[in-house]
Amino acid sequence: MARAAGLILTLLLLVGSSELLSAPAMAFESSALEQGEQIFNSNCAACHMGGGNVIRANRTLKISDLNAHVDAYANTPLEALEHEIEDGLNAMPGYADKLSEEEIIAVATYVEQRAELGW
C-alpha cells in the first residue's frame, strides 16, 4: 500500500505541473514535507541529525551513501526509503508499527528532498 501511495504522490506531482492543478499539488507537497520534517525531528534526528549517522558514520542520509547502502535507491528512491523506514536496517528499528503509511511516505519524501539538496 505504501508503494501505491508513493506512486499516487508521483503522479500528482507530474500532473500538478499543469496550471489547473499546480497549486493543489504544490500545497500537498509542501504539507507532506512539513509533516515529514516534524516526524523526522521527532523520530530520526537523534541518530540522523543533519543527514548524518551517529552510530555508523558511513551510513548517512546523503545521496552517495543512500545509493551505496539502500537497496533500489538509485531506481526508486522514495519506495526504497519507505521500505527502510517500515522495516528498519541494521541498528535502525522499523517504524511500520509506530507510524502510519501516510507518515512513512511523508518522512521518506522529506529525507529524499533533503538528500537531493545535500542536507
* Annotation, overall tally of beta strands: 0
Percent helix, as a range, is: 55-70%
* Low-confidence runs: 9-22
The averaged pLDDT comes out at 85
Shape: globular
Largest sheet report:
none
- Provide the succession of SSEs: HHHHHH
CATH superfamily: Cytochrome c-like domain
Please tell me how large the radius of gyration is: 14 Å
CATH fold-type name: Cytochrome Bc1 Complex, Chain D, domain 2
Number of domains: 1
CATH top level is Mainly Alpha
Q: Structural class of the secondary structure composition? A: mainly alpha
- The fraction of residues in strands falls at under 5%
Characterization of this structure:
- The structure is a single chain.
- With about 120 residues, the chain is mainly α.
- The protein has a single domain (about 1-115), classed as Cytochrome Bc1 Complex, Chain D, domain 2 (Orthogonal Bundle), CATH 1.10.760.10.
- The protein has six helices and no strands.
- The protein has helices at about 1-15, 20-45, 45-50, 65-70, 75-85, 100-115.
- The longest helix is centred in the first third of the chain and has 22 residues, at about 20-45.
- Mean pLDDT is about 85; it is low at about 10-20.
